Fold this sequence. Notes:
The chain starts with a strand and ends with a helix. It is built from 8 helices and 10 strands. It is of the alpha/beta class. The strands form 3 sheets. A 6-stranded parallel beta sheet has the order 7-6-3-8-9-10, sandwiched between helices. The chain has 2 domains: 2-21 and 91-218, Rossmann fold (3-Layer(aba) Sandwich); 23-84.
Amino acid sequence: MILQGREITGVFFDLDGTLVDSAPDLVVAMVRLRAERGEPDIDVSAIGHVVSKGGRAMLRRGFPAADDALIEQLLPRFLDLYAEAIATHTSTYPGIDDVLALLERSGVRWGVVTNKPGWLAHALLVALKLDSRCAAIVAGDTLAQRKPDPAPLLHACALAGVGAASSVYVGDDLRDIEAGRRAGMMTVAAGWGYLDGEDALAWEADRVAVLPSDLPDALGLR
């Protein structure tokens, strides 16, 4: 496929908020954690807005009075609770399965580059039966560097056997777009993700896809 004059051979996705809607299971884990600690019920649905910012950002929403030391103390247990039911309510976003199938039919290799810890990222991809279809899976602890450093994206290209200049990175956070740009990839901002009020247009990605159904056009697949 051709995008802005480039032949595209690889497409890489962020995981949470781009490929999959994992917020429901993370909210359940937060509710369980608060209950374990004897905290009163509160509306923790707002943590879904910051899933792409990582576990600490979610905990700051779930435990708004916690200091940094308590956040660090809570993080391992939060992740353990999440891992116990990692794909109970999580699924790919509507339209994503069609996009992945279209990429595969077009001979374009695709993969995942996420800051999510590897043990969780792999478990989720296995549960959703996506692991065997990925040409590359690069997690937050695969390398010493994490996004927005470009190293994870370049590593994914090497694993998939494609060049960065002929690849696209799709993500729902500014650091995704920064990482893709620094890696020399084309970039697509996922407007359906966990934006927490941010304007994806402001990230200056090469393309913005408002919905997954917009991705084929954004990726030059039709």
